[in-house]
Backbone:
């Protein structure tokens, strides 16, 4: 199973982006789905996730601006990002169970 993330790009402060992550394989229904990001020179950090019970978690820095949604039956997860800030810049990685996607670059200009 491979995960393919897409939707990153360059956006101005206050703009929006929607990231998508889907699998290349079939018969994969993850119990956990999430998005992490890594800014230059920093460690990878959790942005948002959906646990096995369907509950969601958001990091404090994105609470109220980002929304995670997913379809476990289709093994697809999205991250809707609004009111983007320059500090949201980084490579965003999706994860399903313990499988990582390749990352998609998000750059927010000031």
Residues:
């Amino acid at each position: 199973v491979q995960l393919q993330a897409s939707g990153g790009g360059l956006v101005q402060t206050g703009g929006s982006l929607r990231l998508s992550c889907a699998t290349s394989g079939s018969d994969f229904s993850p119990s956990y789905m999430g998005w992490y990001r890594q800014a230059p020179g920093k460690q990878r950090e959790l942005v948002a996730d959906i646990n096995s019970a369907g509950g969601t978690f958001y990091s404090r820095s994105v609470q109220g601006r980002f929304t995670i949604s997913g379809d476990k039956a289709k093994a697809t997860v999205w991250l809707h990002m609004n009111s983007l800030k320059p500090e949201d810049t980084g490579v965003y990685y999706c994860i399903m169970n313990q499988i990582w996607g390749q990352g998609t670059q998000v750059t927010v200009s000031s």
DSSP finds no helices and eleven strands in the chain. The mean pLDDT is 96.
